[in-house]
Amino acid sequence: MTRPLELAIARANRPWAKVCGLSRQADLYQALEAGADLVGFVSYEPSPRHMSDAQIIALCGVVHDAGARAALVTVNGERLATDRLVFAAGLDVVQLCGDENPGDWKDTTYGLLRRIGVGEGCFGELHAWRGIADAFVLDHPASVGGSGQEVDMTLAEDLALVAPCILAGGLDAQAAVFGGEVSAPFIGFDASSRLESRPGAKDASAVARFIEAAHLYPNASTSESPA
Fold first, then answer.
1. Do the beta carbons of residue 22 and residue 215 sit within 8 Å?
2. Contact criterion met (CB below 8 Å) for 64 and 70
3. What are phi and psi of 108, to 5 degrees?
4. Do residues 130 and 151 lie in contact, with contact meaning Cβ atoms separated by under 8 Å?
5. What is the pLDDT of residues 62-114, one digit of tens each?
6. Is residue 224 part of a domain?
7. Phi and psi at residue 88, to the nearest 5°
8. Most buried among 18, 130, 131, 218, by the most CB within 10 A?
């Protein structure tokens, strides 16, 4: 059975703009007002953007009222606990960023993103998760996310030709990818730390500029607007 996220990706007429690491209500409202398609809430205590389950549950209703989607971003997430939070919050997507086993996530009813560190072994990881993850988030391999470092674009472009990929890693509206230097068919773009005035606090103008740049990126592989 085709899942809603798969259908939305296939029907999109422009790349998605994902604003990740939102931890303040005001920042969430600003991102949604600027047109974010997907917003990410981090559940990972070492991160300065970590949110409790209760905080995530409280904010998910705001996301749906704006017609966007909410993603839980987790590192080494445990399947049962993740399922419980998805159900309680009404989350649309889970983004896995750790050493999760693909076999444990085969039958999810929610959308599934797999973060891949663009470096050695990245093609093997992508193939291990194909058919399980709806799409892949391409990030710098230095950390599990939020490093602000740019990825190897040659590898990233090659990955995007194999499977649906969202580009992350050191993005803001001034990133080279938005200057016409890259033409890979990315289905979306994901930014976090480069949109902040300090860790965990988003800059509204930087968020708005990033979303506009992401939506204007040429992507001939899409055909209809996101559901």
1. no
2. yes
3. -70, 145
4. no
5. 998 888 999 999 999 899 999 999 999 999 999 999 999 999 999 898 999 99
6. no
7. -65, -35
8. 18
21 near 44, Cβ under 8 Å? no
Residue 69's closest CA among 37, 47, 45, 95?
Answer: 37
Type of residue found at 44: Y
Q: Which of 6, 211, 213, 222 is nearest to 111 (CA)?
A: 6
* Rounded percentage of the chain residues whose pLDDT exceeds 70: 91
- Asked whether residue 223 carries a pLDDT value surpassing 60, the answer given is no
CATH number at residue 11: 3.20.20.70
Is 223 within a domain? Answer: no
| Within-domain flag for 222 | no
Total domain count, the chain? 1
Residue 53: φ, ψ to 5°: -60, -40
Identify whether the C-beta of residue 113 lies closer than 8 Å to the C-beta of residue 137. yes
